[in-house]
Amino acid sequence: MFEINTVEEFKEKIVEGFVLVYFYTTWCGPCKMITQDIKELSKEIDDIKFIQVNADQFLDITKLCEVSTIPTLLFMKDGKNIEKKVGFTPKQEIQEFIEASKLASQMEAEEEVLEKDALN
């Protein structure tokens, strides 16, 4: 899992592919409970970039992503928000969230192709 240290790093990491963004703070109890699970998932799932953002340290990123509660998991594809999950989430549910988000992004991409075909 990659810890974001600058806004530029954040923008570089999210621009391409699947990304799970984990918003946390050092004082958040539920964050402490799920951090290890997210780190484990980042080692188990190869086709997704896992990044973490300290919400206190990067308020501009937090606002940009419309995060108001922590912990928050934000699933993105090619820089676009796909799904959001707020609050404590057990590891199995995080894994299910990731799979459902990937499916949602694929369905959205297929719909865009169908719409373009219909216009032609």
TrEMBL record:
Residues 1-103 form the Thioredoxin domain. It comes from the Bacteria. Gene3D superfamilies: Glutaredoxin (3.40.30.10). SUPFAM superfamilies: Thioredoxin-like (SSF52833). Pfam families: Thioredoxin. This is Thioredoxin. It comes from Bacillus cereus HuB4-4.
